[in-house]
Amino acid sequence: MQWKKTLFSLTLLLLILFFNSSLAFSEEFSDVSKDYWAYTEIQSLSDLGIISGYPDQTFKPENTVKRAEFTSMVIKTLNKENISVNVANIFTDINKDFWGYETLLRSLELELIVGYPDCTFRPCNQITKSEATSIISKTVKNCEMPCDSKSSCSFEEVKYSELKQFADNEQVANWARPSFTKAVKNDLYVNHPDKNYLTPNNDLTRAEAAVLLYKIRQNPSVVVDKYKGPKLYAEKNRMVVEHLAATPYTASVNEVHITGLQATILAENIFPVRFVEKFTSKGSNKGDTVYLVFNKDLVTQEGTTLVPAGSKISAEIVDIKRGKPFHINGEVELNLLNLVTKSGAKYPLTATIVNNELFDPGFGACNLKRMGTIALTTTAAGTLMGLTVSADGDIGEGTVAGVAIGGGLGALFGLAAPGCGVNIPADKDIYIKLGSDLDVNLD
Fold it and tell me: Are the C-beta atoms of residues 53 and 46 closer than 8 Å to each other?
């Protein structure tokens, strides 16, 4: 009986420990509020066990990161903690008693780190953003331009490309320029709070490290396969749900599913486009192809660019009707065909126009203007006729008669006038509603 009590006590103790550890695992840090700029990244990596806080439940996000600490974070991010090591330790200041010894050997195995000319690694030195970027960039596929498919970018090729957008690009050391170029190309860099500066020589903070590594976890498809551990490799196909901003016509559906470098904009989503130039039915014919353009990036609320500005939707005019007497307005019917992105990618489209009243206008300002113009013109003509007829008689009576006749005819002609055509200015939003899911590659 005693052994049963002992077993029960041990089981209860394990349950308590597990429960408490689970709570601690998901507990938020006291010094990282939900409105902190890197809150999501810090919390996410903490939940994954890639980064950790301090015993007092703080994270100290503005503290700097040591070289060994960052190397350990990278290995965990890549899920390479358990790879076998076949290289010897080359650093004179690292031995088996050092807490990060095995991690540093794994980093050597993966050729992620280098030491100093005196054969030291200096694990307790603060790591700079340039040094961290150098490590990160080694895991990333070679940039696509201006390189060819058989070689990496040389310094001469890349030094004037991606980095020129930053005000302090000249502060990037020559040895770090290729690394920063690859990192910027793949959005694996952090420059908070000023987006115009890379600050390459600053020491990396814990918050900045969390953002860098979070980006890798969110987009593992940019990582070379040899650097992907089992979990990271599995995340290649992990789907992330993001959302489009609401429009005046949006109901409840605004989800976008992102997997790696592909996004699926779900059916029923609505987004705005505009005509490339003013559209008028008067100068158009059935069978013509017209283009609607994204005048700004189509971006999720979470910040992913789905369709860059300048991309177009092609459409065919499948029916066109001119205005008819008695103010029967013209109509235009479009069949939306394809989305063609700025990079040239083409995607078949199943969609309709939500604010179709632009293409099938009812009686409105255009008709009233046309009616008034005709009425005033005819009235003026009638008045002039009355003056002419009464030149030898009573001018007042002739004028009154002319106005009455002209006004009557003007009203009649105004009512019988033909309807207006379809005229849509280039700055008018046209809302497109997807009839089926739209898969696009993220350029």
Answer: yes
